[in-house]
Sequence to fold (293 residues):
Amino acid sequence: MHNCTILSGKEVSDHVYRNLQDRVELLFENNIRPGLAAVLVGENPASKIYIKMKTKKFHNLGLKTETFKLSVDCSQEELIQVIEKINNDSSFHGILVQLPLPNHIDSNSIINSIHPEKDVDGFHPENAGLLSIGAPRFIPCTPKGVMRMLEYYRVKLSGKHVVVLGRSNIVGRPMSILTSLKTKGANGTTTLCHSGSSDIEKFTKIADIVIVALGVPNYLTKDMIKKDAILIDVGINRVNDNSEKGYKLCGDVFWEEVIEKAKAVTPVPGGVGPMTIAMLVENTVEAAESTLK
Ligand code: GUN
Fold:
């Protein structure tokens, strides 16, 4: 038997939803129903599933949501027009454009066209900038969800070495900023490793906490960590198998191996994934609340 704690995103996200109930009630009393507009371009199967999971949660909580679907060959101008319409629609407090976008569309131009006060993904440069100076408005959902899990399970980062693997604008970069901010629950000493790093093991081996966001199945093995490390697995990879679906989901952490050595690990599925959705709901509620003030 192992002594590794399983950090359940299902449990923490349920806690988040319970805490949001009163806030949502208060908005309803003020005739405000938090609303999310989801924008999906093309037929990427993973993107379709993510959008479905996100909007389903909004439905189940009695919140407003609508998915705007555009064909894979829509022009950048068409997409921007859709976003501007949502920007000007007061029944939507949040806008989410599911990434990645087709190659002929410049993602930065699209993200720039989202009204920063409706940018519940926290990807707009204004929101990214606010986070980097320690004055966040909307924090990207996945890194925010990871911080919430660490807080819930009382994992202190102050005085600890945090190693983040991956430097994407969606996870790794904001994660490295959040963990190192001088705030309660953070104050960590963070190393950010990426595809240009040599000898990543040198860092993961001395890390107290490793946050893996690479998208490489079973990347982080037992030999790469120190005993009693805490591992946060952001990867959701489809690996082909002989099941009916033809694939199974696996993380970036080699789960079967590391549970013998780590102090705590997030599972895939049921770890960071549910937290991303909970933080999207929380950010949308926050966006709706700001219209009260
Ligand atoms: N693609 C991968 N993660 C995300 C996310 O959190 N939000 C959006 N919009 N797209 C993504």
Observations:
- The chain has two domains: 31-115, 140-273.
